[in-house]
Design goal:
mainly alpha, 2 strands, disordered N terminus, two-stranded parallel sheet, globular, single chain
Length: about 375
């Protein structure tokens, strides 16, 4: 069922307003072979998560609960980690449901989300992770749930894994504050600036930390933090972030100040419509996918089995996110058009075998062009 038909048959929904970029999204270039579609215990993990959410009263009413569940956070987690250990995966599911309550607050556009308040909340959240019992998190259901998450997470992760997760959380919140400063100044970032920040905006390392933990991947810091591995990681995050910009475009197209996403950034920079900017956005995404495949093959050829497992996890992250967003009601039946999520809604996406932009050269964007610098010459010994 396509999202268009969903909108036409939803009582009380906005059945007339189209998406500025169209409901039929361009075909996705994703030449990644998956070893599994969704974790076999996803239904059990989802039910456990829902029980946890209700125990803490994370949603104030039935409507907010419905939209919280419309994120399909359990399916997201279980699609990007289709073969991992259940208990770390369950923790990731809980963190995703919890994080979406924060993400929606950041995206609400209310006065409560001014940069100063975002920074203040971020500091309290990070300190709660670093120093349990610091009493810096403001009282309430969200803080109570956070305390439980912190306790469980600290018991589960090694000191190195915990530090990386805290830094990943800080990275995401830092990018959220940057976005809000743009809103307050009523500016759209440049394409180069946005390209350099979108991996952080998307919370890439927040997700990948749990991908590593659940899959039992333990790369040495010197390997994980090497330029080439950081580049392939960022490339994966850029692809996922751009795909999210496509899937979530209609969800945010009601904002008086256009949402900061790749399509609107390009439209602003080129002086064109979002529909006209779509091809360039997808082309940049596909060019990055070509880089990701080439760089992954280069790194896999080094023969490190643990690094190969990490590269497989990155592939699951990309392909799993596409499959998840295609049928998550949060995106496929957006709240600005529907009073409640529409079960079974879907974009009905298609795939393509070749990139829409066949170029293998780095784009003229210094913030990300260094990723292509990590490719070794095919003639090199």
């Amino acid at each position: 069922m396509s999202v268009t038909s969903d909108l036409r048959t939803t009582p009380g929904g906005d059945r007339s307003r189209p998406s500025p970029i169209g409901w039929q999204l361009p075909p996705f270039y994703c030449p990644i072979t998956l070893t599994g579609g969704i974790h076999p215990r996803h239904a059990e993990l989802e039910q456990r998560a829902l029980d946890w959410l209700d125990d803490y009263g994370l949603y104030p009413d039935a409507t907010e609960r419905a939209w919280g569940l419309a994120t399909h956070s359990a399916k997201f987690s279980c699609r990007i980690i289709p073969c991992g250990q259940p208990e770390p995966l369950f923790m990731f599911v809980l963190w995703n449901y919890w994080a979406y309550t924060i993400d929606d607050w950041l995206d609400s556009g209310s006065d409560a989300t001014a940069t100063a308040k975002i920074v203040d909340t971020s500091v309290r959240l990070i300190r709660a992770l670093e120093y349990p019992g610091s009493s810096m998190a403001r009282p309430g259901p969200v803080a109570d749930a956070l305390h439980d998450l912190v306790t469980r997470t600290r018991d589960m992760l090694s000191p190195w894994q915990l530090r990386r997760f805290i830094d990943a959380m800080r990275d995401w919140l830092f990018a959220s504050a940057w976005q809000m400063t743009n809103v307050e100044r009523r500016i759209m970032p440049t394409l180069n600036d946005f390209a350099g920040m979108t991996v952080s905006i998307n919370g890439t390392r927040f997700s990948l930390t749990w991908c590593e933990v659940a899959n039992g991947i333990d790369l040495p810091p010197d390997v994980l933090c090497s330029p080439a591995v950081q580049a392939v990681t960022d490339a994966a995050g850029f692809i996922v972030s751009t795909d999210n910009d496509l899937f979530s475009y209609a969800k945010e197209d009601h904002l008086e100040l256009p949402e900061q996403n790749l399509i609107n950034v390009i439209a602003h920079e080129r002086g064109c419509t979002p529909k006209e900017a779509l091809a360039e956005a997808v082309g940049l995404r596909d060019r990055t996918m070509t880089l990701f495949i080439r760089l992954s093959e280069q790194l896999a050829a080094q023969g490190d089995p643990e690094l190969r497992r990490y590269l497989v996890a990155l592939g699951h992250y990309i392909a799993g996110c596409i499959a998840w967003q295609n049928s998550a009601p949060r995106f496929a039946s957006p709240r600005n058009r529907n009073p409640l999520p529409v079960p079974g809604s879907s974009f009905g996406i298609t795939y393509r075998d070749t990139p829409s932009d066949p170029s293998t050269d780095a784009p003229a964007l210094p913030a990300i062009a260094w990723w292509w610098d990590q490719l070794t010459s095919p003639d090199a010994p």
